């Protein structure tokens, strides 16, 4: 399916993690599904999926949220890529990024995982790091808090005021990437707000 894209929101399963920084990728995929009034359903690849389109007559989108924990996201992602016959260059991984300030979006294809275990596992399972990423900035903790604890905390009160706009912008970035390409998406979303 040449014009099919797999859009994966990384995160952890269950209500304990829903509102945490580590789950912002799943929040973005939820926003993409909500825009299309679609509901996720179970898939045999240990994920929840929505089959839809970027717009009527446009590219097909498979929106996905792995049911696995973040650090073992690769299995569900590679299973979905095989099931839908989507090549890695059309597997868009949406994830949180500590090294980008909160309320910032960066897009890239390939490169390292930057210590992100979910991205590392996806690259291993796909046997390549060459897949597009929509990186949603969550910033680093202030003081001495362990980053591993920081990502599993809910967004703070001040962050929650801006979070809906950030999630909406990241969903826009995914749509722009699919319809106009990486460079156009980078030019639009890398600019300071």
TrEMBL record:
Q: At which residues is there a site annotated Stabilizes the basic form of H active site to accept a proton?
A: 96
What is catalyzed by this enzyme? an N-acyl-L-alpha-aminoacyl-tRNA + H2O = an N-acyl-L-amino acid + a tRNA + H(+)
Transmembrane stretches in the record are none
Task: Identify the residues that bind tRNA.
Answer: 17, 69, 71, 117
Q: Where is this site: Discriminates between blocked and unblocked aminoacyl-tRNA?
A: 12
Active site located where? Answer: 22 (proton acceptor)
Which GO molecular-function terms appear in the entry? peptidyl-tRNA hydrolase activity
Name the keywords, alphabetized.
Cytoplasm, Hydrolase, RNA-binding, tRNA-binding
PROSITE patterns in the record: PEPT_TRNA_HYDROL_1, PEPT_TRNA_HYDROL_2
EC number(s) reported in the record: 3.1.1.29
Compartments (UniProt record): Cytoplasm
Q: Which SUPFAM superfamilies match?
A: Peptidyl-tRNA hydrolase-like (SSF53178)
Q: Please name the InterPro entries in this protein's record.
A: Pept_tRNA_hydro, Pept_tRNA_hydro_CS, Pept_tRNA_hydro_sf
Indicate the enzyme's highest-level EC class.
hydrolase
Self-association state and partner proteins as the record states: Monomer.
Q: Which PANTHER family match?
A: PEPTIDYL-TRNA HYDROLASE (PTHR17224:SF1)
Q: Which family does it belong to?
A: Belongs to the PTH family.
Entry function: Catalyzes the release of premature peptidyl moieties from peptidyl-tRNA molecules trapped in stalled 50S ribosomal subunits, and thus maintains levels of free tRNAs and 50S ribosomes. Hydrolyzes ribosome-free peptidyl-tRNAs (with 1 or more amino acids incorporated), which drop off the ribosome during protein synthesis, or as a result of ribosome stalling.
Q: What protein is this chain from?
A: Peptidyl-tRNA hydrolase
Q: Which organism is it from?
A: Microbacterium mcarthurae
Q: What gene name does this entry carry?
A: pth
């Amino acid at each position: 399916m040449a014009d099919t894209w797999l859009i994966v929101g990384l995160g952890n399963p269950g209500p304990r993690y829903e509102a945490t920084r580590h789950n912002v990728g799943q929040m973005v995929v939820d926003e993409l599904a909500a825009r299309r009034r679609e509901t996720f359903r179970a898939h045999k690849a240990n994920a929840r999926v929505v089959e839809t389109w970027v717009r009527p007559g446009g590219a097909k989108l498979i929106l996905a949220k792995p049911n696995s924990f973040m650090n073992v996201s690769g299995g569900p992602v590679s299973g979905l890529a095989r099931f839908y016959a989507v090549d890695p260059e059309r597997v868009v991984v949406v994830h949180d990024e500590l090294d980008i300030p909160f309320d910032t979006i960066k897009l890239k294809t390939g490169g390292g995982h930057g210590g992100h275990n979910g991205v590392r596992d996806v690259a291993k399972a796909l046997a390549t790091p060459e897949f597009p990423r929509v990186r949603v900035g969550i910033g680093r903790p202030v003081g001495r808090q362990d980053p591993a604890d920081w990502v599993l905390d809910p967004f703070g009160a001040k962050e929650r005021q801006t979070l809906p706009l950030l999630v909406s912008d990241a969903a826009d970035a995914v749509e722009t990437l699919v319809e106009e390409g990486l460079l156009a998406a980078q030019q639009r979303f890398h600019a300071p707000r």
